[in-house]
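Marked as duplicate of an earlier ticket. Keeping the data here for the record.
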Amino acid sequence: MFNRVSEGMDDYWEYVKGNIEHDEKFEDGTPNPNKYATNRMPLWVKPEAKISVHDMMMFMRDYLQDTELDMSADFGAGPHGLPYRWRPLTWKVDGITYVNERATATQQTGFSFVTQSRSWLPDEIGGIIWWGVDDANATVYMPLYSSMTENPHHIERGNGAMMEWSETSLFWITNMVSNLAYTRYNMIQPDVNKVRDGLEAMFIERTPAADEAALKMYKEDPSKAVAYLTDYSTDQVTRTFNSYKHLYQELFMKFMDGNVKTRNPGFQNPHVEFPGYSEQFLRKVVDETGDKLKMVGPDGH
């Protein structure tokens, strides 16, 4: 996150990677008798520019992309660039222990949120919890005004559980989308992003109008503003649930059986592509299998 908002973070990559230095003196020349780390990161940085709500949402989705620790770039990402590693995070080969990175975004997430506190508005209107379920890369951060008095059914406690399926649970429909994306991440996730980002952009764009409407009601009767914001927040949760239910249906049809299908207007059958695997992965297969899979004779199958 620091790396996204401030210059100079390259100085701390060795510390981030676990290469801790304990020099005799600190950078300013003062002695270091207790052997504290002398290349450690700062506890905070001043951003180069103002940070938006959307920026914070995207920070929650970071998996060290565009850095040397990018989890989608090594062979562990598989043939489709998956930026996740299944637990346990530590593992052994020939008695040597290795560790997978623990990025910000993770499949293990139950829910996450970004809070927004706006002091220039009444308390009933000024607080928004942008809340989402499951993996941050799959979730839609929805605007839940902090004064709302009822839980939307799709995210209500008791509507499903970890081992109890619910057809109306946003947690379960989001997991259906995310776990399908894990199978061929670099192909499927872009389609998820379009729907996810579109919903969030719409919610952010509509926030000023919702604030204004609630403020007018608040001046007349604060309870009316609270009722309005409760309904507004519930509507956005319902919109997200319906959008993701439709998204899963579309993704399943498009990516079923390892192919990529697109509609062919006027014809019963769609266009079909067979993207296969990455060259990096195929080379590893050849290295592992030698001539076992090598074709003899002309190409074709």
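See parent ticket for discussion. The beta strands are 90-93, 96-99, 111-117, 127-133, 142-145, 260-262, 271-273.
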